[in-house]
């Protein structure tokens, strides 16, 4: 890897350990609406300026309606601006794009540091590796680093390290995530439901890739759950995931796996694999044959599997039900 991901992850976990666990209050309704349009026929012309207008310490839902267009800007939601709902016209018509690479903590096109954030119908793209750069480097489309964050019908497009699903509880519903190497990575506690993971290196020769890269502490509840998803791609083969330390956790269930999935399925960067939890249950498709998988994958059934597939895995207190219907 071009960037030593384990270093940044360990730094992240240290920072998290030194901060208070998020006790995020629910946001109040009804939402206030502000608009964004590049034509100027709106409250703001850029997404960032609309976010900047939200008062510090905000506790009421703010609906930011984004008109169709390609917004070439880097967008940051700071920690003191929770309760924001960004809504576009769909990934095919509303996109936020930037061209940057390097440290994943600071170079993402879309960077979330606040809790209670929702995005719907928006594409987030890092275009660095999709042009003739001559190299494939860490280039993050979105970094998600707080609690109670949801994405509906969104797209995340990149090549290496597309989605930095860093920390907190997250829900991805009906989303499309595209990349080539570790394109969903981090230490978050997240559920991906009815979503598509598409492997594509985007440039260069056909090479093998990695869908996920997971790292967690032994006592954390974190991990990635993929439920009713479509895992596919083109231009090579990819493993479902790799563990960056001794405790990675990824569950793939009731999903369709194409033949893009390599027979061994998984790998670990740590020599001790006994506490890694890589699980495949109830899947279909040519890539779902587990006969040649690495021997240390886990099998879960009944309540052991249900604890991860149930929404309570990421939502015990009902924060998703508090999201406005927009």
Outline of the structure:
Helix content is 8%, strand content 36%. It is mostly beta strands. The chain has a 10-stranded parallel beta sheet with strand order 1-2-5-8-11-14-17-20-23-26. Strands 3-6-9-12-15-18-21-24 form an 8-stranded parallel beta sheet, with no helix packed on it.
Primary descriptors:
globular; Pectate Lyase C-like; mainly beta; 3 helices; eight-stranded parallel β-sheet; 26 strands; ten-stranded parallel β-sheet; 326 residues
Textual characterization of the structure:
Acts in the modification of cell walls via demethylesterification of cell wall pectin. Residues 1-24 form the signal peptide. Its EC number is 3.1.1.11. The structure is a single chain. The protein is mainly beta. The chain has helices at 5-17, 47-52, 302-309, and strands spanning 28-36, 60-66, 69-72, 75-77, 84-87, 94-98, 110-112, 117-120, 123-126, 142-145, 149-152, 155-157, 163-167, 169-173, 176-179, 184-186, 189-193, 196-199, 209-214, 223-227, 230-233, 238-243, 249-253, 256-257, 266-268, 277-281. It folds into 2 domains: 23-148, Pectate Lyase C-like, CATH 2.160.20.10; 180-314, Pectate Lyase C-like (3 Solenoid), CATH 2.160.20. The chain contains 3 helices and 26 strands. The protein has a 10-stranded parallel sheet. It is globular and about 60 Å long. The model is unreliable at 6-21 (pLDDT under 50).
